[in-house]
Amino acid sequence: MMAAGTRPDAISLGKDLIGLEGLSAEQILAILDTAEPFKEISERRIKKVPVLRGKTIVNLFFEPSTRTRVSFEFAEKRLSADTVNIASSGSSVQKGETLVDTARNLEAMRIDMVVMRHGASGAARFLAERIPSNVINAGDGSHEHPTQALLDLLTIRDHRGTIAGLKVCIVGDILHSRVARSNIFGLLKLGAEVAVCGPMTLLPSGIDALGVRVFRRVEEAIEWADVLNVLRLQLERMKGGFVPSLREYNRFFGVTSARLARAPREILVLHPGPMNRGVEIDSDVADGPHSVILEQVTNGVAVRMAVLYLLAGGTPERAEAAKQGEAG
Amino acid sequence: MSNERVLLAGGRVVDPAQGIDAGVDLLLAEGRVARLEEGLEAPEGARVIDCTGLVIVPGLIDIHVHLREPGGEHKETIATGAAAAAAGGFTAVCAMPNTDPVIDSPATVGFVAAAGRAAGGARVYPTGALSIGQKGERLTEIGELVEAGAVAITDDGHPVMDSGLMRMAIEYAEAFGVPVADHPEDVGLSRNGVMNEGLVSARLGLPGKPNASEDVHIMRELLLAEHTGGRIHLQHVSTRRGVEAIRQAKARGVRVTAEASPHHLLLTDEAVEGYRTDAKMNPPLRTEEDRLAVVEGLLDGTLDTLATDHAPHHYDEKEQAFADAPFGIVGLETALGLVLMHFVHEGSMDWATLVDRMSVAPARAFGLPGGTLAVGGPADVTVIDPALEWTVDPEAFVSRSRNTPFGGWRLKGRAVRTIVGGREVWAL
Predict the structure, then answer these.
(1) pLDDT digits (tens, 9 = 90+) for A41-98
(2) Residues B271, B326: one domain?
(3) B175 domain residue, yes or no
(4) Is A142 on the interface with B (CB under 8 A)?
């Protein structure tokens, strides 16, 4: 396992975490390295360290989310931050308040960080440019979902030791997926080969210019890949006419055990959740030996702790010490 | 009309309609051009304006602006829009009908015309909707709209999806001598797009409008004009294939005129980086290949006119996540400076072409008075200082709105005096 403390002190994430496109390989590795010592906190009987004591964090979720919101909240609480959750339903957002006004009002209450999920691409950057608090993007439209990609990277690294040189294929609705974009940016920066596979209606035009290869058939992707990251097929895509039916999607693009059985090498299967069992992924794959889906969820908490800690001014070198309760 | 007599002396007059590019003096009287000669003596009582070092051209005409009144007065009014036009050197503008209510009846056309006359800035010509409520279902009473003062028929802002309706509009409008102006966009292809579909949209995770969404309707309109023998005016052409199709259609004799907008001449979808809502307009900024084709089209006359698509929005409305912000930018006060700086001074466009694209051709396309300083014609004149260096400062705009991607641009050349019907409506 890579040890923390091997990277220069100068690595900082800056004020915000908006996406992986804006980070260097060194910054991404610093987050992964920082996450390593934080993993252990969640295994303790008393899951709490005073790293963020006195910090106020607002979790601002304009879209429904369970996994990401709860994962952030655990990360914050286990680092002893004070947290407030705001969901769009039942808040001033639903009463027509603009994003800018919501942000200014929160800022007026003197907060330290905002974790935001928003349906519009660019919303996290929009917020970050307008408030002095740290902003962490928990998913902005179809743009980026950086902590999801970071936990994917950490999970892949746990199993394969390194990212560089691996062949990773992202399968499914690339067009609308913030998880896909963050994964593409992060994987390429760390030296992986990246491919995408899905119906052509769900691949953005110009995707190959990002430096990824395109597979039209999932069988070809499985033959090529060391790692598959299987995306959720949003059920509303049916209404948009992007795919004719769920049944047909599973038939031609579903990751099934029969297809995996023909893989020429050991293959790792990730899924950001929530899964549509029997659509993009079959149950025997999700629950089978290739799957690392629950490890992703566990790593999510550690990665988010690392991001919170680094944005609050921590350094990878001091993560181990901070965890032991020393001054962070 | 003004009874004052004005002598513009010592300037360079560029009037391609008369083949003039020379140092001549211009006398305006009773709202008309009275004399255009070398070394004119000022008649008694005439006001003499020294135009040494300045260029005098027929008043600039923008046939594509949104003045937002009625219904959007927090963005712009007919009065503030007419004043902004004058400040940009325009002596006439054509107001699009996508207001609230829509300009689809003789009464609403009359309202725009009357408010324009009362504004005292640039002349304001109304256009009328093509379909009732711009719903794309039934034709408006086009004859009555024209009688009330509409100079073109258009559903701009609401693309006409029913090809049969478009065909009928082109055929029916022909009898009343007005063109059908079309915003070419197949909304089934552009769907919920908010920028150009391409590499930038793929990276930013924003839904895109493909070039094909525009090209399909450009080609449809050209085929319908060809089939009916009628006239079509294509607005704000932004694609390479669109320019090519228009060039080929003109060679076949199809009766088509077309526009280029300053932003499509100067910017690409890279300007959207950082989710800049001031780079969000429809049609969207496209690629460098498209931009160069639009430039070439304007220079060779495939695209007849420059038109700004002046689309004011309140700052609150643009201060949103990109997908939530409205389409459009203001253009009246920057168009002339941008074209002078980046095409005339840079050497790719001569003065006669500038005046053609910004005055002669727009007047011809929509059948408007002006476009020349011929004796007896309206005294609509723009006086330009070609050497004046200035910086675009949105805070200083006369328009009620500030939504421009050109803020901070250093430009050279701007209108210093705008005269409408012999009356000075703006001076720097």
Answers:
(1) 989 999 999 999 999 999 999 998 999 999 999 999 999 999 999 887 666 666 678 8
(2) yes
(3) yes
(4) yes
B17 and B103 inside one domain = no
CB contact under 8 A, A142 and B199: no
**Is the Cβ pair B205, A143 closer than 8 Å?**
yes
Q: Which residues of B touch A204 (CB under 8 A)?
A: 201-202, 208
A195 touches A170 (CB < 8 A): yes
Tokens of B265: 């001449």
Q: Are residues B35 and B71 in the same domain?
A: no
Domain-located, residue B1: no
String of DSSP letters for A111-135: -SEEEEEESSTTHHHHHHTT-SSEE
> For position B88, which CATH number holds?
3.20.20.140
Please report which residue ranges of chain A form alpha helices under DSSP H.
25-39, 67-78, 99-108, 123-128, 146-160, 178-189, 218-224, 246-253, 257-260, 283-286, 293-311, 319-323
Please check whether residues B399 and B301 belong to one and the same domain. Answer: no
Residue B29 included in any domain: yes
A185 to chain B: closest CA residue: B203
CA distances A291 to A149, A226, A272, Å, are: 17, 13, 12
DSSP labels for A274-314? ---BTTTB-HHHHTSTTB-HHHHHHHHHHHHHHHHHHHTT-
Query: DSSP assignment, residue B310?
Result: B
The answer to whether B30 touches B3, Cβ cutoff 8 Å, is yes
Pair (B12, B78) in one structural domain: no
| Residue-level pLDDT at A238 | 74
Per residue in A178-228, pLDDT tens?
Answer: 999 999 999 999 999 999 999 999 999 888 889 999 999 999 999 999 999
Asked if A122 and B207 come within 8 Å (Cβ–Cβ), the reply is: no
Q: Which residues pair with A58 in a beta bridge?
A: A84, A114
Q: Is residue B146 part of a domain?
A: yes
Q: Is the predicted pLDDT of residue B4 greater than 90, yes or no?
A: no
Task: Write out pLDDT tens, residues B96-145.
Answer: 999 999 999 999 999 999 999 999 999 999 999 999 999 999 999 999 99
